[in-house]
Amino acid sequence: MRVPDRARAEALLDELCARPPVGEPRTVDRPLLLYGAGNLGRMARAYFATLGIPLLGVVDVAAARHRADPVWRGVALFAPDEVSPEQRATSLLAVCIATHPYAPLAERLCAEGWADCVPFYDITEAYRDRHPLGNGWFATDLTERDRVGMRRVLTRWADDRSRAHHLQFIAWHRRREEWVFDDAPVTVDDRYFIPEVCERLGPGERLVDLGAHHGEVCERLLALLGGKVERIDAVEPDPDHLVRLDVWRAALPTALRARVRLIDAVLGAHPGPTRFRAGLGYASQRAPGGAAREQTTLDRLGLAPSLLKLHLEGAELEVLEGGLETLRRHRPIIAATCYHNALGLWRMTDWLATRLDDYRLLFRLHAWCGTGAVIYALPRERDVAKQDRSTP
């Protein structure tokens, strides 16, 4: 499809909303195999181990290489041609690949005799009462307020590519359809650092990284700016991740290390007691059954970001709400994931548009299967900074 303008985007949205929803959570009712031994496959293995659901093994075209990886010790790895026709016909194949389109892959697997293939995240929705991972949600019960809100947000985007990616995101969660638009590719390698962000960055940035994980975003900013940052505040409440962050920071040059601070904090809209479930890798988050923690807010941390990144497993909007004073005072570039729950359909964007003046809003997809969606908010005064840096 062609990238839609506002009028065409609204018509496509109306078409989506008028059609019945498709899909439902999938329980594991057959012998289970994973397809893909990359990062998502690793997360899926840990996920099923936490639930006590056994795996027959993992299928990957590079199985021979992955067998040497200690991560997969004790797990059978198969090349596709090593799985018997009988096994293909009787197994449930959880597809653990989000860096490529799902539909053509599923079509090929079906042609190869796999009788029952589903995206991994469709399975996670069936076990939300036992594990908080929730990227596979279904937009089944859209209200009139949701429809109006999504239409309004389509008009708020600063470019047609945002409208295309937003519709692609809605189509997956509403219908499990993979809409693809010409000139609006899904880019998997530039999450948080799209060209519109990079061209506005310069020496002296102050990064606040909420959900810093192992420091990947911090490291990328340092590489992009040649280490010329004023400060990095990496906020991460998972103890395992904090250990990894500390190792990463310790390896930095002394002068640079002094400008990087690690902050152990659980954030929300308001201070108070909460529960944080650690030890879940990428999926660690506030959730029932987690350890008792005291929650604070971005405003209470007293930070001064020029660049704010949020990846908080669905808590992004609450944390923005608890940081409104910080956002208005320091007017950072914002990059916030929005795919962990239905707040990404329109409420997060609507909140940003109505709380922050003179910002340009963009929506980009950096993965498939309804994941990897990021909202970018660019303060218009940084447009001037961009022009200044490009002037000879």
Structural write-up:
The chain is of the alpha/beta class. The chain folds into 3 domains: 1-22 and 138-178; 32-127, Rossmann fold (3-Layer(aba) Sandwich), CATH 3.40.50.20; 186-390, Rossmann fold (3-Layer(aba) Sandwich), CATH 3.40.50.150. Helices cover 37% and strands 18% of the residues. The protein has 17 helices and 16 strands. The chain has helices at residues 6-18, 39-51, 63-66, 85-90, 102-111, 120-124, 144-156, 160-175, 195-198, 216-224, 239-250, 254-257, 298-301, 316-321, 324-330, 347-355, 381-390; strands spanning 32-35, 57-59, 77-78, 92-95, 117-119, 205-210, 229-235, 260-263, 266-267, 272-277, 285-286, 291-296, 307-310, 333-337, 359-365, 373-379. The strands form 3 sheets. The protein has a 7-stranded mixed sheet, with helices on both faces. It has a 5-stranded parallel sheet with strand order 3-2-1-4-5, with helices on both faces. Strands 9-12-10-11 form a 4-stranded mixed sheet. α1 (6-18) runs antiparallel to α7 (144-156) and α7 (144-156) crosses α16. The longest helix is centred in the middle third of the chain and has 16 residues, at 160-175. The protein is globular, with a radius of gyration of 21 Å. The model has no long low-confidence stretch (mean pLDDT 97).
